[in-house]
Amino acid sequence: MLQVTNIHKKYGSLEVLKGIDLMIAAGEVVSIVGASGAGKSTLLHILGTLDTADSGEVFFDGNNIARLNATDMAKFRNRHIGFIFQFHNLLPEFTALENVCLPGFLAGRTEKEVRQRAEELLQMLGLSHRLDHKPSEMSGGEQQRTAVARALINSPKIIFADEPSGNLDSKNAQELHDIFFRLRDEFNQTFVIVTHNEQLAGMADRTLVMKDGQIVID
Length: 218
Ligand SMILES: Nc1ncnc2c1ncn2[C@@H]1O[C@H](COP(=O)(O)OP(=O)(O)OP(=O)(O)O)[C@@H](O)[C@H]1O
Prior knowledge:
This protein is an alpha/beta fold. It has a single domain (2-91, 155-217), classed as Rossmann fold (3-Layer(aba) Sandwich). It is 37% helix and 27% strand. It contains seven helices and ten strands. It has helices at residues 40-47, 70-80, 96-106, 111-124, 140-152, 170-187, 198-203; strands at residues 2-11, 14-24, 29-34, 55-60, 63-64, 81-84, 158-162, 190-194, 206-211, 214-217. A hairpin with a 2-residue loop joins strand 4 (55-60) and strand 5 (63-64). The longest helix has 18 residues, at 170-187. The two termini are 17 Å apart. Residues 11, 14, 16, 34, 36-42 line the site of adenosine-5'-triphosphate. This is ABC transporter ATP-binding protein.
């Protein structure tokens, strides 16, 4: 599904990624681990089209997305990629349901269809009693599960998660990890997850270890 070749990235004179090659198959849960500053988030952002590499190629299902212009890239991201961040990044003035619906509306889908899917997702994630709650009215675990529903609203090919359980206590972290694997088992959902959480890395199908801008163990 995802293939990247020879990705390089510099910030000023700092070489952050030094030739990354990687293939990820549909239905894989891949974790990326490594010391702080190894380049994990930078790689994740490039894979997720939030940032661009200085050189190298990123192919999704054989399409070279590095060649898309900014508008088409944004459209591609909205339709095919989901993101989950350490801090849920939900919009504070919107309810859980509205937050989940938003990327669906941006994709140009009908209100009825998007609302129905959002309600189904929130129900699946145990949040049917929180539809009308704003983020500040929910627990950390509930906020993060809402962010998972938002990531799923457009049925993305792949979900990128950057320290998704980094801000959760161990019970909520465990619940979140179980959700990822349930989504993989039931819907063949693909995940690439940057994490310092050893339990999550240990559960993944593959663990990539990064060091100084390179993948040193796959
Ligand atoms: N926008 C930027 N401008 C300049 N330097 C940056 C930028 N983003 C990241 N860096 C630097 O690039 C290096 C890699 O950062 P990155 O966030 O990818 O590491 P990481 O492995 O995800 O670390 P952590 O585990 O601490 O999140 C670091 O030295 C960081 O300071």
